[in-house]
Amino acid sequence: MKENKQSPRTSALLSIIPGLGQFKNGQKVKGGIFLGLFILFVIEMVFFGGNALVGLVTLGTNPGVDNSMFLMVQGTLQLLVTIIALFFYGVQIRDAYQTAVRIQKGKEVEDGWKGIRDSLATNGFPYMLTFPAYALMIFVIILPVLVTLFMAFTNYNFNHVPPQSLISWIGIQNFHDMFFLSSYRATFLSVFGWTLIWTFAATTLQITLGVFTAVVANQSFIKGKRLFGIIFLLPWAVPAFVTIMSFSNIFNDSAGAINVQVIPFLNHLLPFLHLHGLPWMTNPLWTKVALIMIQGWLGFPYIYVLVTGILQSIDQNLYEAATIDGATAIQKFNHITLPAILAVAAPTFVTQYTFNFNNFTIIYLFNNGGPGDVGGGAGRSDILISWIYKLTTSNTPQYGLASAITLLISAIVIGVSLVVFKKTHAFNMD
After folding, report:
1. Any transmembrane segments, and where (predicted)?
2. Cα(398)–Cα(250) distance, rounded to whole angstroms?
3. CA quadruple 277, 197, 246, 388: dihedral positive or negative?
4. Could you tell me the pLDDT band of residue 2, with boundaries at 50, 70 and 90?
5. pLDDT score at 4
């Protein structure tokens, strides 16, 4: 009787060698599968995995022969394989223990291919469906993220380009340079400050325009709503690449339509304005103003469509009751319309801010981050993501520093998103 009580613990201890706990429980097929996977992992570690992990630590020892980046990628992949193997190692120990508990309670335990098949068809079916997605995620998302993470702690730059030369681990030096090295600190603070201004101003403008057009177009006295809907969707229908390149020509200082046609027309229509052509492409301030206006134009149609759907779901009796109580249009908007919009669209609004925080396309295509520069390879209208691009594609690339900035961007975006999502109850599934 005493031996029977220790059976679950004994099965778990035997599972230190994968499969033995299952053999003790009478599950020979399952035990054979775990033992076979363990043997395959050991063979893989002997012939490849061990060297891959060593390469991840050393990043090579023979310049001109060893490629540090290949070693980092191979080592990172092996690290993921090892973590997965350790996970399944723990799973098989837990499985042996729980199976022994079921046997101790007199419950039936199935074995053989039929039992495994039946178990997969019931309890394991959701895992079978999601396994391909998880496997793909390892190679498409987790592996690149880990390589970028590791790269941020290396001296991978124009002086250390494998395989001609090896890269090595330097700890937090890149982060230190970003915040304390005078040349990069000034650049980082300038670019980061403009990134925050750009994100807040451009996104707020497109959200405001989207909400405003949706609310106005949804009023009962407005005629031709379908026509307005088509007009408002035009910026969304045209590819953003084409629109941005067109605006780049429209805002040209000497030959653009704004300075050549629009401003003279306004002066002719309203002579007292005395407007002059503005340096949209050569003055950093006006370039930034143009970028914010263009993004407002590009981004508001999506908000318009989203908010239009929300407005159509609001009970009109609420507005009728507010009218009877003497509420003004502003009061109706503040107490009925806006809360209804935010209750549904707040998480989407947050994603618009995070998107514009990393909106590389408009910054690069409009004026390539110019005009001028603020040092460190960054232009005066560059945001963090476009600065990273320049750091990695210039004649003197700084891959390690670019990776460090990438990690900082990720931390900011993820942190802010999680806080706002929690405050807006976006994760509530009720």
Report:
1. 33-57, 69-89, 133-153, 191-215, 227-248, 285-307, 399-421
2. 35
3. positive
4. very low
5. 45
| Residue-level pLDDT at 427 | 59
* Residues in a beta bridge with 154: 169
* Distance, first Cα to last Cα, the chain: 49
Give, to the nearest 10 degrees, the angle between helix 7-14 and helix 68-104.
160
Backbone angles phi, psi at 374, to 5 degrees: -115, 15
What angle, 0 to 180 degrees and rounded to 10, lies between the N-to-C axes of helices 399-423 and 143-151? Answer: 120
| φ/ψ of residue 379, rounded to 5 | -85, 170
Strand partners, 279: none
Fold classification of 179-423 is MetI-like fold (1.10.3720)
Hey, what are 76's tokens? 């990172």
pLDDT tens digits for range 347-364: 889 889 999 999 999 999
**Secondary structure (DSSP) of 380-406:** TT--HHHHHHHHHHSSS--HHHHHHHH
Distance CA 75, CA 83 (A): 12
55 contacts 71 by C-beta, under 8 angstroms: yes
Q: What is the pLDDT of residues 372-384, one digit of tens each?
A: 888 888 999 999 9
Query: Tokens 């330097």, residue?
Result: 170
User: CA dist 285 to 25, 276, 297, 381, Å?
Assistant: 74, 16, 19, 9
In the chain, what is the greatest distance between 2 CA atoms, to the nearest angstrom?
104
pLDDT band at residue 291, thresholds of 50, 70 and 90? very high
Name the pTM for this structure: 0.83
Tokens standing for 339? 């809360």
Phi/psi for 154 (5° steps) reads -120, 170
Question: Hey, what's the torsion of the CAs at 195, 341, 309, 318, to 10 degrees?
Answer: -160
Of 251, 278, 254, 281, residue with least CA distance to 267? 278
Take residue 377 and report the two structure tokens written for it: 């390879």
Count each helix (H run) and each strand (E run) in the chain, helices first: 22, 2
DSSP string, 86-119: HHHHHHHHHHHHHHHHHHHTT-----HHHHHHHH
Is the pLDDT reported for residue 160 higher than 50?
A: yes
pLDDT tens-digit map of 240-249: 889 999 999 9
Q: Between the CA of residue 209 and those of 37, 297, 299, 302, 353, what are the distances in Å?
A: 58, 8, 9, 10, 15
CA–CA distance, 326 with 319 (Å, rounded to integer):
11
Domain with CATH 1.10.3720.10 in the chain: 179-423
Helix (H) or strand (E) holding 234: helix 225-237
Amino acid at 55: G
Alpha-carbon span 244 to 10, nearest angstrom: 68
Bridge partners (DSSP) listed for residue 379: 373
